């Protein structure tokens, strides 16, 4: 298994771990940042890591990688609900996840020379 695949797997595990933490146990950020912006950045990173792990530099957009990241985001929102830790799933969080993954993949395609 390549190093990028391992890093992507560890990152996905970290995302799920953070989703299992109750909202009261998450430290406050001194600067007010939108929850949606955090989701966007979190999944942009995932998109970049997915490109590193599976991007082939071929023609066209890697729709399969976007589908993976978006479905992971939806599953992550459902996971929060299943954990019963006072965090509720939000369709707009999942939408921000998908947009972030799209941006991360797009940036990777433009700037990452393979």
What does this structure look like?
- The protein has 114 residues and is mainly alpha-helical.
- It has one domain.
- Helices cover 70% and strands 0% of the residues.
- It contains 4 helices and no strands.
- Helix 1 runs antiparallel to helix 2, helix 1 runs parallel beside helix 3 (63-83) and helix 3 (63-83) packs antiparallel against helix 4.
- It is globular and about 40 Å long.
- The two termini are 18 Å apart.
Task: Briefly summarize what is shown.
This protein is mostly helical and 114 residues long. It has helices spanning 3-20, 35-54, 63-83, 91-111.
Summarize this structure as a short list of keywords or feature phrases.
114 residues; mainly alpha; globular
């Amino acid at each position: 298994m390549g190093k990028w695949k391992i890093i992507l797997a560890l990152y996905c595990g970290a995302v799920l771990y953070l989703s299992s933490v109750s909202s009261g146990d998450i430290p406050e950020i001194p600067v007010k940042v939108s929850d949606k912006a955090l989701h966007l950045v979190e999944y942009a990173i995932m998109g970049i890591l997915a490109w590193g792990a599976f991007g082939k530099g071929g023609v066209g957009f890697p729709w399969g990688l976007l589908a993976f990241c978006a479905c992971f985001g939806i599953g992550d929102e459902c996971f929060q609900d299943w954990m019963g830790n006072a965090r509720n799933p939000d369709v707009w969080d999942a939408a921000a996840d998908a947009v972030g993954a799209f941006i991360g993949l797009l940036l990777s395609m433009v700037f990452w020379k393979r």
